Amino acid sequence: MVPESLANGRAGTITLTGAGWAETAPDLMLVSVGVECRAASVEDAWAAATGGLREVGAALRSRGVAPADIRSTGLAVRPDLAWRDGEGQKLVGYVAAGSLSVRLRDLPGASAIISAAVGAAGDTVRLNHLQLVLSDDSAVRAEAREAAWQDALRSAGQYAALASGRLGRVLSVDESRPAPGPVPLAGLQRASAAEGPPIEPGLNRVEAAVTVTWELAT
Fold first, then answer.
1. Residue 199 phi/psi, 5° resolution?
2. Structural domain of 21
3. How far apart are alpha carbons 170 and 178 in whole angstroms?
4. What is the pTM of this model?
């Protein structure tokens, strides 16, 4: 909360920026899961990676994840190079990798779903990252706006009193929206399907800031 100006270049105005926030539990998990396969030829690496992705996708769908919540986000093949003394870098094969972006709406069952996906393609699976977010933040954002408004109003009222005046009508309102802050979970290069990762949803904070200009009445 920072007063931008008591006069703001004009007589009889007060401009204040108020900040506020509200918290609620997330209800959606975003997961990036992929496969990485090495083989002697491009064809073999490609076939292994695409086959692994199909198995991961099938495992997700078998656990109730809707097809609309599964999206391919990449598939690539690159040379697999290794350094050998006296020979320098040598081509030893090829690496094919691909990933799926998945939305999990069942947070209590998310751990079992992730374990099934990770176990579908063995050691080639990579769990890239997890994020816990809000599918709809409109209600909690309204609470944050209210908190920001009250913050600005309290400070503006104090400044008006110090200036031996009172707040008049609102002349302008400008909202600035801070970047959203999802709750990230640590990414893993490899994971075992034997035990699902613990899911601790916690709370997501939504922040708001509003700059308001009032008339300064006497």
1. -110, 115
2. 2-25+137-181+205-217
3. 23
4. 0.74
Two structure tokens written together for 71: 């999206």
Mean residue pLDDT of the chain comes to: 86
Both 32 and 82 in one domain: the answer is yes
* Residue whose entry in the numeric block shows the structure tokens 């977010």: 133
Backbone angles phi, psi at 136, to 5 degrees: -145, 110
Residue 139 reports pLDDT greater than 50? yes
CB atoms within 10 A of CB 145: 19
For residue 144, the domain's CATH number is 3.30.110.170
169 three-state secondary structure: strand
Nearest residue to 126 via CA among 97, 104, 93, 106: 97
Q: Tokens 């933040």 identify what position? A: 137
| DSSP character string of 108-151 | TTHHHHHHHHHHTTGGGEEEEEEEEE-S--HHHHHHHHHHHHHH
H or E element that contains 35: strand 28-39
> Does residue 43 sit in the same domain as residue 98?
yes
186 part of a folded domain: no
pLDDT, tens only, 73-129: 988 999 999 888 777 888 899 999 999 999 999 999 999 999 999 999 889 999 898
Between β-strands 70-84 and 125-133, what pairing exists: parallel, antiparallel or unpaired?
unpaired
Give me the CATH number covering residue 49.
3.30.70.2970
113 and 43, same structural domain? yes
Exposed, middle or buried: residue 88 (CB in 10 Å: 0-12, 13-18, 19+)? Answer: exposed
